[in-house]
């Protein structure tokens, strides 16, 4: 299973809230994909820009580096010509409707026991919709261990690591664990990706706030007419 799949399971299984913003989730999923591509050698960072990894530059297809369909699609979409795109541009481009794509795959592969329910702009899924599987248990184990990359991505998507044990057990903790200093990850590239995800989520929140203000102002104008 990929980090993106584990992230989706953690978001669904966690009882910290009934919904997340689809845009936030999509950006976090795009960040998870990029981190896995870097780990697989299919991508790399040159400063803050996404570049093809060693396997690609040596002539091997990026698809041969990963065995997940959505991750292969992400690898094949890498910009190979200079100037390569910044990490944040990758997140916005790759993240477009990515949450819906992962949810659709979850249903198609039979990992979901019931149809997922989504409504824009928020996403609400009953954890009971997930079928018990080794993949789900793997994601739960990463979450229970407060794996720093997974918890950081989940936090960006709007889910705090506030649980001990399986995310579906419903027992909140104090959140003191799992907030590892990301600078201790030992890979500046991962830190760069996580920072870009957080910045993109903040930017998206600003866009939503401006739209809400504009909508409210428009409604007030019509009330006054």
TrEMBL record:
Highest rank taxon of the organism: Bacteria
Keywords: Golgi apparatus, Lipid-binding, Membrane
Region (Disordered): 161-183
InterPro entries: GPP34-like (IPR008628), GPP34-like_sf (IPR038261)
Coiled coil regions in record: none
Pfam families: GPP34
Cellular compartment(s): Golgi apparatus membrane
Membrane topology: Peripheral membrane protein
Protein known as: GPP34 family phosphoprotein
Species annotation: Streptomyces pratens
């Amino acid at each position: 299973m990929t980090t993106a799949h584990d992230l989706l399971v953690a978001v669904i299984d966690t009882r910290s809230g009934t919904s997340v913003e689809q845009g936030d989730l999509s950006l976090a999923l795009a960040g998870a994909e990029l981190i896995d591509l870097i780990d697989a050698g299919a991508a790399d960072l040159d400063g803050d820009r996404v570049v093809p990894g060693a396997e690609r530059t040596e002539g091997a297809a990026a698809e041969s580096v990963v065995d997940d369909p959505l991750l292969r699609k992400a690898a094949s979409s890498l910009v190979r010509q200079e100037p390569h795109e910044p990490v944040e541009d990758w997140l916005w481009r790759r993240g477009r409707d990515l949450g819906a794509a992962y949810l659709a795959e979850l249903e198609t592969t039979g990992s979901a026991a019931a149809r997922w329910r989504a409504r824009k702009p928020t996403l609400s899924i009953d954890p009971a919709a997930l079928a018990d599987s080794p993949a789900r248990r793997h994601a739960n184990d990463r979450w229970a261990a407060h794996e720093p990359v997974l918890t950081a991505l989940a936090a960006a998507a709007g889910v705090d690591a506030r649980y001990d044990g399986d995310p579906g057990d419903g027992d909140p903790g104090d959140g003191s664990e799992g907030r590892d200093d990301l600078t201790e990850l030992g890979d500046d590239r991962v830190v760069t990706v996580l920072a870009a995800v957080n910045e993109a989520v903040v930017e998206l929140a600003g866009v939503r706030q401006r739209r809400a203000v504009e909508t409210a102002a428009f409604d007030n104008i019509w009330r006054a007419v």
